[in-house]
């Protein structure tokens, strides 16, 4: 007899042989909380699980107020709405990210400027950010720099000390996109707690999931109260439905929050498991690098602790005997192993053609040469054996080709 979570994971059950990039990882606690929601008939949005899930987030991240929402994208939209961002304002957004970081800027009818990454963390380059702000202030377009949206890519913290200092210097708001980095820390402080607003995502592929969902966190009580109001269609206090402003249907349901409560109880374990995955890949690739390859990783600095949501590698053909990230991705796919290119930067997206961009080519290089490898916290030893066997098969073939080419040249 199938349980609730067999049903949730049904797409994965239908293709059991495939190793997925980052599938959900459910346990008994999540099912117990969901069953509580069913047994109490508290299925509709709002309810005790929503309240408790928000308290869990506040406690874990050391923030005063959490608002559980339908997605990380909706959380960014709410944050921009809270700051009255509009047509005369400029929002500076990291280019190297998922579109959910950028789309809310356009929901708000505002102006985006995309900022390239710096090579250390792959996140927003503070120097380019400040240059873009200065240029905006010096222009005659009548626009005001208002918001900065840095992203902690694949769990790796951005340089929030520098970004916050720039925001303070120019009296700007920081909407910290920590959708991929729940459980990561920078300078000992949890990501998502550095900005005026922190954003989390609980999409099905994240380090913990509520099936679909997100959250906004802030230390400003009046902003949290207004976020709750906006996310529930901005309904005024009245026995009938009264609305004085435009709101959104963005609240998380009680059922999904029940999943989140169970997931929060294993979050630290999931971080440990993902970091262990990363170390297994490091050991594997070190052996091949010693034989002539040069595959590199996203580097963790001494002031950062990444949740390693996804293990990402760089495969520059010029340094790997012509081997490319696409060679690896397609070879893994033949073996029913999912791998995915790094995010395509926003400044390369057709929908954002013409949007201002400040860059030095870092995110372009990362996209061209980067690959995310299977990183689920439920990867087994057998899964890793399959992944490593498939990769070794490809690398051996490449080495044989290289030796054959060298021998023919001499």
Describe this entry's structure for a reader.
Helices cover 41% and strands 14% of the residues. With 410 residues, it is an alpha/beta fold. It has an 8-stranded mixed sheet, with helices on both faces. It has a 4-stranded antiparallel sheet with strand order 10-12-15-13. A 3-stranded antiparallel sheet has the order 7-6-11, with no helix packed on it. The protein starts with a helix and ends with a helix.
Helix/strand layout:
Elements: H1 4-8, H2 10-14, H3 28-40, H4 48-61, E1 65-69, H5 72-82, E2 89-94, H6 103-107, E3 111-115, H7 126-138, E4 144-149, H8 160-169, E5 173-177, E6 185-186, E7 189-190, E8 197-201, E9 214-218, H9 221-231, H10 254-264, H11 267-289, E10 296-297, E11 304-305, E12 311-314, H12 325-334, E13 340-341, E14 356-358, H13 362-369, E15 370-373, H14 381-409
Helix pairs in contact: 3-10, 4-10
CATH topology of the largest domain: Aspartate Aminotransferase, domain 2
Looking at the overall shape, the CATH architecture of the largest domain is 3-Layer(aba) Sandwich
Mean pLDDT: 94
Weakly predicted, low-confidence segments:
none
**What is the succession of H and E elements?**
HHHHEHEHEHEHEEEEEHHHEEEHEEHEH
**Domains counted in the coordinates: how many?**
2
Q: What is the distance, rounded to the nearest whole angstrom, between the alpha carbons of the first and last residues?
A: 66 Å
Strand count: 15
Beta-sheet strand percentage?
Answer: 5-15%
Alpha-beta classification: alpha/beta
């Amino acid at each position: 007899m199938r349980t609730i979570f067999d049903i949730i994971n049904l797409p994965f059950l239908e293709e059991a042989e495939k190793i997925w990039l980052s599938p959900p990882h459910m346990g008994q606690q999540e099912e117990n909380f969901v069953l509580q929601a069913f047994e109490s008939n508290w299925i509709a949005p709002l309810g005790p699980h929503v309240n408790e899930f928000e308290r869990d987030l506040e406690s874990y991240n050391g923030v005063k107020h959490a608002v559980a929402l339908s997605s990380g994208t909706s959380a960014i939209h709410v944050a921009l709405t809270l700051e009255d961002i509009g047509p005369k304002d400029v929002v500076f957004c990291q280019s190297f990210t998922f579109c959910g970081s950028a789309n809310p800027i356009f929901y708000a009818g505002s102006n985006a400027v995309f900022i390239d990454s710096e090579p250390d963390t792959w996140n927003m380059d503070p120097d380019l950010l400040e240059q873009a702000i200065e240029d905006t202030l010096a222009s005659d377009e009548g626009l005001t720099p208002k918001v900065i949206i840095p992203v902690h890519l694949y769990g790796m913290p951005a340089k929030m000390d520098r970004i916050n200092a720039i925001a303070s210097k120019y009296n700007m708001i920081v909407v910290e996109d920590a959708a991929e980095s729940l459980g990561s820390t920078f300078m000992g402080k949890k990501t998502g707690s550095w900005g005026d607003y922190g954003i989390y995502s609980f999409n099905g592929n994240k380090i913990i999931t509520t099936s679909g969902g997100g959250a906004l966190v802030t230390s400003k009580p009046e902003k949290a109260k207004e976020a709750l109001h906006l996310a529930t269609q901005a309904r005024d206090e009245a026995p009938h439905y009264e609305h004085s402003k435009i709101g959104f249907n963005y609240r998380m349901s009680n059922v999904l929050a029940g999943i989140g409560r169970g997931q929060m109880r294993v979050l630290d374990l999931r971080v440990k498991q993902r970091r262990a995955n990363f170390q297994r890949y490091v050991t594997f690739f070190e052996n091949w690098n010693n034989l002539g390859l040069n595959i590199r990783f996203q580097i963790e600095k001494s002031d950062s602790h990444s949740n390693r949501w996804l293990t990402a590698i760089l495969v520059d053909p010029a340094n790997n005997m012509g081997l490319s990230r696409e060679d690896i991705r397609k070879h893994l796919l033949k073996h029913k192993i999912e791998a995915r290119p790094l995010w395509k930067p926003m400044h390369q997206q057709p929908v954002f053609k013409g949007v201002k961009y400040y860059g030095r080519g870092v995110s372009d290089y990362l996209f061209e040469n980067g690959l995310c490898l299977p990183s689920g916290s439920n990867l087994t030893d057998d899964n890793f054996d399959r992944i490593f066997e498939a990769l070794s098969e490809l690398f051996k073939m490449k080495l044989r080709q290289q030796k054959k080419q060298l021998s023919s040249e001499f």
